[in-house]
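Table S2 (continued). Query chain:
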Amino acid sequence: MTEPPQAPAETPQAFAETPTASADPPPQTPAQVRRRATLAGVVVSALLIVAIVLGSRLLRDFDSALLPYAVATVFLAFGVAYRYTVWISAPGARRLFKQGWRAFFSVENFRRAPTALPKMIATYLGFQKFLGARSHARWAAHQLIFWGCVLAALITFPLTWGWFTFTSSTGSGPGYEMRIWGFKVLGFDSLNVVGWLMFHGLDIAAVLVIPGACYFLWRRMKDRAAITGQRFAYDLVPLIALIVISVTGLLLTFSSIFLHGGGYEFLAILHMVSVVFTLIYIPFGKFFHIVQRPAAVGMQLFKYTSRGKAGTAAGAAATAAGTAGAVVGGGAAAGGEEGLLTCRRCGEPIDAALYVENLQGTMRDLRLDFDEWAEYCPRCKRVLRGNAYLTHIKKGFK
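Corresponding output:
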């Protein structure tokens, strides 16, 4: 990589204060990472087993027919903890993970912007507005899958673990009681609207998931941009699994209502196999982004608060100096852009100064030796590389 030329502007204060050597511990070897990940997986799995035993009142409320699902969730807990530990052991993820949690627990951030975190959780995690900028259809389909899976998880996991029970004093209803950990939460009639919603929550989740998954499957078949880089196991299998789970779930209801249980056992086994496979697949496939997404909220909060801190500092400095604006990095920033680092060549905003500083630290950890390039905008990087190519390799090329 060609060294960036000496910029005429001053070095940003944030970078001037950055030590050349990282204060973080040295990177772990792959064997050390695997040992930590295995230990984390074992601990989380053991905690889940204890929670199942205690939450089901020493297995008195545990339904043995749901044992395969419960075992699959234990494997899921192990896989998620293992993969998550490996993920945050990488220098880049570890740095952003730590900064995200610091921003999350910062009292100063809460005082400065008390509504920032709830807004980010709602817009970035719940309604995923960033997907709407790419395509409204993709956003709508993803919302259907997201809320369908959330609803299914909220019902299935506690039910599988024996935390939820539905009991009737008559044995066959229509009056039922819903209990959580043995405590009565509410009573309802299975023949009214509330009862219907309670007993058909998974059917509603399936109805939400099917159109969303079918849209993405159709897009994977028709969209050239999606087809170009897709892989069957990574991109198509998750969608097929969601459709199989949802369709077999609906067929179970159809069988019990209209076929008097005809084919129920076969459908139940097919449904169970598809669910167990999907749960075990989650940590090692595309569905792992579900687990990673909450961490992205912390990273967004870190960027937001970094911009706010830098803006406050720049504003105070500008006020003290009596200047009209604040100088950050290589260019002058004004208005709401005081917290941004500006390009050393053209002065255009790049990103929050602390965020770029964090990126440079990661690049130094990885010994990439071109962290100074983070101080240039993408366009200027291309221009500088082109100029270096013309100067040192292709002299005379026009």
